[in-house]
Amino acid sequence: MQWLLNIVWASIGTVGILAFLGWLFRNWIDTKLKARIHHAYDVKLAELKAENDRTILTAKAVIDREAALIASVRAAFTEGQKASVERRLTAVERVWARVVQPELCTTA
Question: What is the pTM of this model?
């Protein structure tokens, strides 16, 4: 009977040790998989952030170029308007001078 009890205790000990080792191995595998997945997501996130930063820099460069173009067009338009206003003012002054002093009008 003692030999049967020894076999049972040995089996229980072996099963217990194997269960403990299985639990440790499962936790180790679980930790490794989580770390690998976390690392993969971190790498992908860093790539996406870098791509986003490049896109933002490109968009800012385009916006800056267009702003400079708009500023130069606005300046050119303002200069054109200023010249046009000066010509109109000169014409109005000539007409007014003739209205005020009709003798300046020479008819041929």
Answer: 0.52
